[in-house]
Amino acid sequence: MRPCVQLACVFGLVAFFISSAQAMDGNTLMKACKAIKGNTGRHEVHETTCIGYIRGYVDGQQVAAYMAADKAKVGAYDRPLMDEELKRHSEFCIPKEADNAEQLGLVILRYLEKNPKDLHVPAAFLVLAALKDAYPCWKK
Question: What pTM was computed for the model?
Answer without folding.
Answer: 0.72
